[in-house]
Amino acid sequence: MGPWAQPQQMPASPAPFSPRARPLLAALASVSALATVSASLALALVGPAPSGAAAKPVELDPALKTLLASGNLRDFDGACATAVEQGDGPLLRLLQQRLLGLHPAPQPLAVMFANAEVLLRCEAPDGALQVLARISPAAGAERIQWLVMQWRAAQAGLNHQVAANALRRLAAGNLAQLESLELPVSRRQDGTAVTRSALDLLAGHLESLGQRQRAAEVLLSGTQPGAVNAARLAQAVALFDGLPAVEQDRLLELALEQAATAGAWGLVGQILDQQLALGQGIPERTERAAERRLRLSRGIDDAYAEWLLGRTAELERQLRSPRSPGGHAPKSFSDPQP
After folding, report:
1. How far, in Å, CA of 76 to CA of 82, rounded?
2. Within 10 Å of residue 233's Cβ, how many Cβ atoms?
3. Is the dihedral of CA 200, 205, 208, 213 positive or negative?
4. 81-132 confidence digits (pLDDT tens)
5. Which of 21, 72, 106, 329 is deepest in the core (most CB within 10 A)?
6. What is the pTM of this model?
7. How far apart are the C-alpha atoms of 161 and 204, rounded to whole Å?
8. Strands (DSSP E) along 13-129, which ranges?
9. Largest Cα–Cα distance in the chain?
10. Coil, strand, or helix at residue 32?
11. How far apart are CA 176 and CA 128, in angstroms?
12. Which of 46, 129, 127 has the alpha carbon at shortest distance from 89?
């Protein structure tokens, strides 16, 4: 699978700031009158002046003015984190606007990627897309990195069309290879990435665009058997409009087989419920699905009851063993001392 062999990693959190940057960032929280900012930055900070009122120059804290004039990407990364944490919208807009012009093309790919990354952290996904649009790497690892970052920016901005296009280009004509590409969709509290298969993500973008048929076709391109693919088959049946009953049953039977083999009995129950719903008005279909659903319910109940009986028997055995920890037999001199 080449570049698909390893999941894409979420970018690491920014490294600690240099001593030079710390006092600069500490001053960002307070915006006071000391230096004049350009008209466009003034509008971003305080909005347009009231009608008929004379425009007054807006002045910024010297540390913020220094950052906007000569800060590097690392400085902006930390400033964006501070602004996001404090919910400072005007400051965020100032930083976003400056980041868009910080490294105009042409620049090395690494610089463009880093610029787009900081824009993403600065909650400016559209700005990140603008920066990424300035480059177009040739086929290879750099193009894959570019397309993944393009997808991340489009995903963050809910731009489903751009996100779907990026994933289709990653597939390069073979949708099945998206199945093993895990892309980050969020972060847990401990900082680790939550990922999803690019195949499922592409289907989700297409469904959001109203392209249900194409979304179903993407789901059917999965090749790895198991509970995940069983869920994809069932979802594809739900997305297909006007799918013949025979084909619905064929796909759902395949899904049932894969879910049962994986022991995903909850999923088996959901698929049988789907069969029941699809068979409404067709007695032979509903009767068969209802009978199987009932057998499954009994089987699950029996398995749970059997587990409970086994657990109860084990507890009773432990209680009846006088020498077990907590047993009722009196200690003797031969017993090991705690």
Report:
1. 10
2. 23
3. negative
4. 999 999 989 999 999 999 999 998 888 999 999 999 999 999 999 999 999 9
5. 21
6. 0.69
7. 11
8. 35-36, 59-60
9. 99
10. coil
11. 28
12. 46
